[in-house]
Structure formats: C-alpha cells, structure tokens
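Worked example

This section walks through a single chain of length 474. The input is the sequence exactly as stored; nothing has been trimmed or padded.
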Amino acid sequence: MKSFRWFLLAALSLLMVFPLPAQAQSGGPGETAGPPPVHEHIVAPGETLFSIARRYGTTVDAIAHANGIADPSQIFSGQRLVIPGALGPVDAWTAHIVRPGETLAGIARQYGLDWQTVALANHLVNPTLLAVGQVVRIPTGQEKATGALHAVQPGETLFHVAFRYGVSFWDLLAANWTDRPPVALSGQWLLVPGARPTWMPSPFQKIDVTPIPARQGDALTVIVHTTKPVILEGRLFDRAVPFAEENGVYYAYIGVHAFTEPGLYEMTLTAATEGETATVTVAVRVEDGGYGHERIDVPPSRARLLDAAVIAAERQRLREVRALFTPQRYWRGPFRLPVEAAVSSYFGTRRSYNGGPYNSYHEGVDFDIGAGAKVYAPADGVVVLAEPLAVRGNAVVIDHGWGVLTGYWHLSRIEVTVGQRVRAGDVIGRVGNTGLSTGAHLHWDFWVGGINVNGLRWVAADGPGAVPERAGAP
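Given that input, the structure is written out below as tokens.
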C-alpha cells in the first residue's frame, strides 16, 4: 500500500509540473503491483557509491541505508551491495546523453515514447530538472524515431517549420496528424522527423559544454557560436565566467573545485547586442572525482611552515596572480609535461598532515625526479611570478591566457624573470627541495579561472587544451 501511495504521489507530481497536450498522453508503466525491484551489485575496482547509484538510477543514501554503510566513502572491491529500487544495469537500457536545450518531452518523442514512460523509468519526480550530460535511460525494445521537437511560434506555418529544418512538408504532416492539422498552430509541439533540435534565442546559434558530466577537478569548456558579435557574460558556481573571442567564436574555461559537492548546478549565459539581449540557462552536473587519501608527515625542522598565518599570507600572494584573465591565448594544442618522470602523488588526493583531519587536498601533481633536473614550460605563455615563497619554496607561475595558469614549486633554481615570454619546451627552472617539501620533486599546479584543476587532463590529445583547434563551425 505504501508503494502504491508513493506511485500515486509521483504520478500526480509529474502531471502538475509538466503538462502536455492531450494527444501526447498515453498509458504509462507502473500499472503492475508489487515492491520496487532489488538488484545485487559486486563492487568493481575504482567504483564509488556515487557511480554505482548513478548506474542503477538510485541514490547514495538509499544504497547506504540498505547495506548499513555508515561512511559512503568506505566501500571495497568485491563487496556485495543490495541496490533497492534499481532500474537495472545500464546495459539493459538505451542510454541517452542530455544535450543543451533538450527537454524530457523532446527526448521521449525521439524514441517514440511518451514523457511519462521515460520519467517513471528514471524516477524523475520533476521532469523539468534535466542537466546537460545527464544519462536518461530509455526502455529497450522501442524503435527510435529520430527527430526534433519544435514549438510553433506565432505566425509560423507548417511550411516555415519544414523549411527551417530541411524536411519534407508531407513528412512533417504525417508525423503529427492522421487527419487534417488544426487551424491554430501557435503553441503546438511538432515532431520534426529526421531533424535535431537547433533552435536557440537569437543571437545564440550553438552552445557546446564539455566534458558532460564534469568531475570534481575538471575544467569545463564552454564554446558559444552566435549569429553576430555580442558581449557575452556567464555565471556558474556563484562565480562570473569571462569569455574570450577568437575567429568569431566565444570560449570560456571554468574550473570545477575538487571539493565541489556532486549534484546539479545552473549556468546562465547572457548575450547582448545593440537593442537585443538573450539569456540561456544550461544545467551542469558534477560527479564525485573518486580521489583517494594520503597522510603527509612533515619533519620537525619544517613544521613551522604549517603555521596558519604563514599559509594565509602565501595564499593571498598567489590569489593576486591566479585571478589573472588575459584575453589573448598563448598556447596552441595540448600541453606537454613539465618533466619526464613518474607521478608520485596525483591531483585531488585528500590529505592529512601529521595525523590531522583529511580537510585539505593535493592541489597539483607531484613528479618523482631528482634535484637539478630541468623543468620545461608545458606551453607558450608569460611569466607572472618568479620568487621564493615560504611554503612552496622557489616558485614560478606562467600565464597561458584565457584564465589558464601553471605553477612550479620547490625549485632549486629559477631561470626566468617576470614578464619574460616563454615557449613550450623552454627551461624555466631546476627541480629542488625548497619550502614545505619532504624530498626533491616537482609540484605542478594548474589553475583555470583561479581554481586548481587536474593538469594531466590538459596533456591528452583530446583534452581542453586542444579544443580551440578542433572546434568546428555550427
């Protein structure tokens, strides 16, 4: 009885928040009685409770409660978990990745389904809350009907819609009515067979956001095409998002902090021209980064460097530098590694110093390499800091443009000066053991929009650094 009341409440909520025209309504699932399905899952290496919950369309809290797990971060490979209310593993469904501008109704129509079927299959109480990059599971066994969902605007005719999407007038007519179309079309939703949604408010033409979904420590790339030059502003994570223009296309890089709470966030983009302003809202989903833990034991001779006042003063000095936004882009293509050496500590690892709480994280990447080794610039840029610091030792910071900066700590020697233009592969210093360091190594910081991110992602051939070179026309 309890499950029936839950279903009735969910169904009523769906009807209240997302009404559709009568012809779009049809019988949905949920008519069979019985308890929600239960699955058993064996934890694989590298999995987290968050990724398992996402795979089965349930929540971390539900799995933790069903298995008596007090700390959701403490699961292990080979552990058997009961998954209450699971939708089933992802290979039992067709996975649809939500794109900017898509709605639940539009997605359902693409697969020949009604929106209630898809909403109930994904446990969506509020179908309007979809995020770019979200995985929507489509029940298998259904033939996909590709197309776009178009809302008819005042003054539009079927000929206008067919011409706009490049489809046959007769195909458009047959896809929506078995009889003659209604006289009043304004406000009607039409399925446009063989097309994909392309409409955005002028002057927006196309918006790309990658990666989707984003993980803690990622750098989001936002590429905006417009029909004319605009003043473009954005906002995400309660921070302003500055854009740079190159060849008529607008780019922004947004750092996702390593401690950003997994969940759904709203990004707003506003384009202004003379006499015209338009705003688009894009939902961004952030996932857990799956970072591990490590303990750092600082020798007594350097324990003074853990003093809060010393750390705060140095952070303020770096804050002045990493907030730089240069509208010119210096780099071209993927970054290179600053040294050729093994990684001894990865970005994002949660850290405890001298047995204290794990309330900090590794802000960069450590390379295991001997003192005196050459450190190279990973990409073109301008040196904006070259000086000794208390905690980070001898330090260098390079501005690569567009809010992207890199830092190099614990150097034994600095071989560049502030204001110097460097090229990828130039020697900027030597590996050392200065500052708060327990041995010779290179610590490499990577900042995007003032936020520390994982620099190793920028080295990949398909990483953020390569995006401007492969960003095509709309």
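What to look for: The chain has four domains: 38-86, 147-193, 216-287, 293-466.
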